């Protein structure tokens, strides 16, 4: 009796594990198919600062929340120039400042 219950629990655990893997695979495929675009609306120069008014547009099949953005700026040859990070709210404009 106990051995039968243990085998049943083992089979149940194996089935749940396989289902979990398929669920994770589907979620990763949805995330992989998501895209994010940085839309620059305005650019101004104030002294030695370069200011951008921007918005992040996301195309995704998943619900999402943007709380923090990190940008790495490189030149055309891929050499690092500067980076920026800041709080960003969903579907709202924000300022990026480089000096």
Automatic annotation (TrEMBL):
Keywords: Membrane, Transmembrane, Transmembrane helix. The chain crosses the membrane at residues 6-24. This is Uncharacterized protein. It comes from Fervidobacterium nodosum.
